[in-house]
């Protein structure tokens, strides 16, 4: 779940706001990104991936807020690690972008969601089979 935006690092570009599929982030009064709906965070890390300033910190916990502060996030040494490890932006020359591999993971998650929904409501099984 997104834990913190380090205001001093945020440039106000809005890339993280645009990348978020759940509208968790908004542009605040000062023109910088703010966390508007933290509980809606899917922990997809797209905000971190698209932030060229490495101003966001997403913790892998998806069910609850841990309460990481900006100071703790900076001290962790993990600010920007997701972008770096995926070869985005300035890291393209030193790290191979393997983000394309997420397609298989998303497909497995989609099929699992269909199976779970069908198990919870057997009357919709035929409709879910058509989606496959």
TrEMBL record:
PROSITE patterns: 4FE4S_FER_1 (PS00198), 4FE4S_FER_2 (PS51379)
Gene3D superfamilies reported for this sequence: 3.30.70.20
Origin: domain of life: Bacteria
GO molecular function: 4 iron, 4 sulfur cluster binding; metal ion binding
InterPro entries in the record: 4Fe4S_Fe-S-bd, 4Fe4S_Fe_S_CS, Fe-S_Ferredoxin
Coiled coil in keyword set: no
Residues of the 4Fe-4S ferredoxin-type domain: 1-30, 31-61
Keywords: 4Fe-4S, Iron, Iron-sulfur, Metal-binding
Matching PANTHER family: ADENYLYLSULFATE REDUCTASE, BETA SUBUNIT (PTHR43687), BLR5484 PROTEIN (PTHR43687:SF4)
UniProt-recorded name of the protein: Ferredoxin
Lineage per the UniProt record: Bacteria, Pseudomonadati, Pseudomonadota, Alphaproteobacteria, Caulobacterales
């Amino acid at each position: 779940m997104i834990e913190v935006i380090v205001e001093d690092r945020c440039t106000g570009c809005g890339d993280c706001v645009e990348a978020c599929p759940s509208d968790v982030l908004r542009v605040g009064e000062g023109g910088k990104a703010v966390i508007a709906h933290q509980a809606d965070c899917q922990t997809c890390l797209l905000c971190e991936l698209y932030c060229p300033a490495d101003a966001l910190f997403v913790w892998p916990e998806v069910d609850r807020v841990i309460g990481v502060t900006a100071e703790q996030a900076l001290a962790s040494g993990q600010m920007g690690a997701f972008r770096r490890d995926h070869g985005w932006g300035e890291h393209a020359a030193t790290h191979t972008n393997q983000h394309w591999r997420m397609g298989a993971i998303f497909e497995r998650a989609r099929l699992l969601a269909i199976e779970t929904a069908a198990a919870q409501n057997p009357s919709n099984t035929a409709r879910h089979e058509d989606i496959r």
